[in-house]
Design a protein that fits this description.
mainly alpha
């Protein structure tokens, strides 16, 4: 969509290149672009760990083995992955409650 406006369009160029063609500093990306976009989208406060938590939850929801999740997130202890990073996503929660309700109604 905006590719025709981009300066760096080669397949080997960085997606978020700065004026030098090199990646922008992560703090600048977060402060100048990601945080304002999150506010405009109504998401609220975000940071780099927001992406890590989201990545972990999506991996979990996709059925990814916990050991694989741990390694992809580069955690030393699998408990960190399971207890701090991975959260159940809303559709999975709804499905779990639905199954409980069906089981109760059958009984």
């Amino acid at each position: 969509m905006f590719r025709h406006q981009a300066v760096y369009v080669a397949p080997t160029n960085y997606v978020f290149a700065g004026d030098s063609g090199k990646p922008r500093w992560q703090g600048v990306m977060l402060t100048d672009h990601i945080k304002p976009a999150a506010v405009r989208a109504g998401i609220g406060k975000v940071g780099w760990h927001t992406f890590r938590h989201t990545f972990s939850s999506i991996l979990h929801n996709a059925g990814t083995n916990m050991a694989v999740q741990k390694e992809l997130l580069r955690h030393a202890d699998i408990q960190t992955t399971m207890n701090l990073y991975t959260q159940a996503v809303a559709p999975a929660k709804r499905e779990a409650v639905h199954r409980v309700a069906l089981a109760l109604l059958k009984g």
